[in-house]
């Protein structure tokens, strides 16, 4: 899950057009292309602190395979743009890292990816190895074009245990409890919940959960699958109204629009005891442990997002980035395809899960509870794993699930909702016209 200094949720993708050869197993940008004559598989991965796990797996695979994997790590801020440029060209990778959902939907439409659904179903040790909600979150139109290859990234309600103890309160079980906490902490001159309004994707997290708790995951599922009228569901209006009410009530303070996450402003504000809560991706723990270790070890606590009384959503449902995925270029065939599938299947094994856990990640594979004691922070690891394992749904972050031509205006609409430039009804109308 990410270096805390990278844009979280791996949302900052790549700007550099150059490939980087980071180890002896890495290949240059040029290749024989997907399905080419070379007895190797060209694999592209986003370069960050977790790629060491992929490097180790490639070395292990290459020890026994006649077809070698060449791992190319691509740094920067525009990975997805680079991928879109490469796909369909002679320099396209055979296997590549992605976010599932909307990030690969265009490739699926153009028949550029291998449909892995039947392969997963035919090999239970492969298909049943992954937590179903994680595997399904990367699907496109109900078909699987990706296999989980990184740790899970749910959005979690973090809170300051010391501030809560001093106020004599508990983390909110319901949305009404949350509004009560807003009043409690305002009276104590503490910002109830820090919000990095300078980065609108942090506001998105609040709206994602509000809609999921109000109406269930099916509403956004319909929207991301092309049903624009899904945004007209009454639950969308109700969620937007609750978001506006939180802003109006002072839940995020008066200056949240000037707060940034990418410069560590929000996390530092939280760690300094200026805010009681922080809704953020699971990487926030690692971020705090790196930058504010005393706070992380002595004050940081975590909880699930509260339910909405009368809401249709399942209280165990999650939002965030379920994980990242490997997809296979449709031009890969024959022995190279067989090798590609064997490479993917290694990600379902216990050895790979153990490597992720040792790196501080929570794997997307089922049945790894016994391995979590070896995690750097076992209590936090078990909390994450159990919430993901038991989630009936895990909704991919909207800005990754939607196509790129919808994601940007969607974030603009959310920013305007939280800033008061759009009221709830205007927000709904704007979403219908994405």
TrEMBL record:
<feature type="signal peptide">
    <location>
        <begin position="1"/>
        <end position="27"/>
    </location>
</feature>
<keyword id="KW-0732">Signal</keyword>
<dbReference type="InterPro" id="IPR006059">
    <property type="entry name" value="SBP"/>
</dbReference>
<dbReference type="Pfam" id="PF01547">
    <property type="entry name" value="SBP_bac_1"/>
</dbReference>
<protein>
    <submittedName>
        <fullName>Extracellular solute-binding protein</fullName>
    </submittedName>
</protein>
<dbReference type="InterPro" id="IPR050490">
    <property type="entry name" value="Bact_solute-bd_prot1"/>
</dbReference>
């Amino acid at each position: 899950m990410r270096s805390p200094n990278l844009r979280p949720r791996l949302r900052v993708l790549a700007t550099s057009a150059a490939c980087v050869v980071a180890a002896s197993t890495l290949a240059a940008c040029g290749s024989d292309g997907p399905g080419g004559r070379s007895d190797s598989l060209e694999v592209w991965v986003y370069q960050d602190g977790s790629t060491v796990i992929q490097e180790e797996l490639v070395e292990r695979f290459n020890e026994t395979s006649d077809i070698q994997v060449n791992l190319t790590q691509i740094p920067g801020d525009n990975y997805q743009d680079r991928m879109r440029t490469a796909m369909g060209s002679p320099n396209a990778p055979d296997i590549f890292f992605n976010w599932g959902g909307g990030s690969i939907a265009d490739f699926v439409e153009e028949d550029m990816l291998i449909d892995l659904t039947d392969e997963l179903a035919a090999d239970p040790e492969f298909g049943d190895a992954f937590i179903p909600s994680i595997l399904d979150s990367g699907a496109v139109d109900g078909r699987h074009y990706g296999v989980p290859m990184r740790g899970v990234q749910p959005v979690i309600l973090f809170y300051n245990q010391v501030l809560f103890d001093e106020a004599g309160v508990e983390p909110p079980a319901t949305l009404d409890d949350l509004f009560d906490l807003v009043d409690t902490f305002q009276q104590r001159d503490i910002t109830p919940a820090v919000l990095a309004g300078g980065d609108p994707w942090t506001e998105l997290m609040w709206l994602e959960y509000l809609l999921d708790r109000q109406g269930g995951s099916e509403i956004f599922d319909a929207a991301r699958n092309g049903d624009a009228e899904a945004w007209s569901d009454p639950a969308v209006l109700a969620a937007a109204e609750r978001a506006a009410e939180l802003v109006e009530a002072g839940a995020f303070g008066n200056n949240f629009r000037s707060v940034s996450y990418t410069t560590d402003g929000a996390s530092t504000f939280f760690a300094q005891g200026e805010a009681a809560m922080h809704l953020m991706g699971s990487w926030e723990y690692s971020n705090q442990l790196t930058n504010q270790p005393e706070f992380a070890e002595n004050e940081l606590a975590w909880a699930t997002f509260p339910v909405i009384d009368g809401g249709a959503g399942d209280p165990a449902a999650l939002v965030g980035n379920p994980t990242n995925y490997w997809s296979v270029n449709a031009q890969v065939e024959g022995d190279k395809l067989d090798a590609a599938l064997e490479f993917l299947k290694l990600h379902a094994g216990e050895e790979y899960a153990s490597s992720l856990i040792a790196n501080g990640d929570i794997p997307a594979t089922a049945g790894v509870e016994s391995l979590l004691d070896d995690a750097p922070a076992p209590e936090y690891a078990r909390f994450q794993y159990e919430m993901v394992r038991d989630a009936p749904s895990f909704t991919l972050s909207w800005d990754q699930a939607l196509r790129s031509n919808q994601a940007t205006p969607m974030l603009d609409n959310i920013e305007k909702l939280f800033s008061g430039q759009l009221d709830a009804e205007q927000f709904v109308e704007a979403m219908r016209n994405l």
